[in-house]
Design brief:
mainly beta, 2 domains, 16-stranded antiparallel β-sheet, globular
């Protein structure tokens, strides 16, 4: 492994770093070639209250071999990343972009890190769900995109996130489920975890065949939650049934006593 770090005050505080390694082996995996490069500028290095720096990083892993075949199929044989940002004294770390790229998924994020709280926008693209069939232990097909916009507190595990996602051409190798998933599936809404427990606001998942919605809050001691599941026409599941199936569930409670109410609208079943 070769590691080089260079900092030159005379070059207006420019700094560079690079690492090149071959045939790195760790329990469960090995990497034939690893490359990492970074550069930036440090200003006011001797004045703590005015110190600041910029950074731009790039990295590449090639010849990646993972012992677990299911993980290996999901990750692939190569991966790359890049990140750019800056920091100045008394301010959050600004992440202009961070990207992780592989053959089956791309992950990108941009935002600000204040202490252990990250606020930003993260996008996940699952380009080939089939690559995750082994991990899911069932055949998968299709693609999916998800955007998460909000705040995560890594210290206490809290978050406040707006979700927006789309899954396309989904197949789970199940005639019934694939009938529900034959058109694009959309996800939207807000999810929070705070001192009051979990909170859901207009959390929706569905398409032309089905619709689910979740609103309210739930915690160990208290709850005020409403959930709805609708299949608009059961012919999507079976030609032995038709009509709307709807299930509404609500739960309210205090002092760890939760009252659950379920109402249903049943379809008309017919025989052929």
């Amino acid at each position: 492994m070769r590691l080089n770090i260079d900092y030159d005050v005379e070059r207006q505080g420019g700094w560079t770093a690079s690492m090149v390694a071959q045939n790195v082996e760790r329990p469960g995996l090995s990497v034939r070639d690893s490359t990492f490069v970074a550069s930036g500028v440090v200003t006011n290095a001797k004045i703590a209250s005015q110190r600041q720096f910029t950074f731009a990083t790039r990295g590449q892993l090639d010849g990646l071999i993972i012992d677990d075949p299911n993980v290996a199929k999901a990750v692939g044989s190569s991966a790359s990343f890049q990140g750019d940002g800056n920091w100045q004294a008394g301010q959050p770390i600004v992440l202009d972009q961070l990207k992780l790229l592989s053959h089956a998924l791309d992950l990108s994020t941009s935002g600000k890190l204040t202490g252990l709280t990250y606020t930003g926008v993260t996008q996940l693209a699952l380009k080939e769900l089939a690559a995750f069939s082994g991990l899911a232990q069932r055949p998968l097909e299709g693609q999916a995109d998800l955007q998460a916009d909000g705040e995560v507190d890594f210290l206490v595990g809290g978050f406040n996130i707006n979700l927006d996602g789309t899954a396309r051409k989904i197949s789970l190798a199940s005639d019934a489920l694939d009938g529900l998933l034959k058109s694009n599936v959309l996800l939207s809404g807000n999810v929070q975890r705070n001192q009051n427990g979990l909170e859901f606001e207009r959390l929706r998942l569905g398409n032309a065949q089905f619709h689910t919605a979740l609103n309210g809050s739930y915690a160990t001691k208290t709850s005020n939650l409403e959930a709805t599941v609708k299949i608009h026409d059961l012919v999507a599941l079976s030609d032995q049934a038709q009509g709307l199936l709807a299930v509404n569930l609500s739960t309210t409670g205090e002092d760890e006593i939760h009252n659950i109410k379920v109402t249903t609208q049943l379809p008309y079943f017919c025989c052929h």
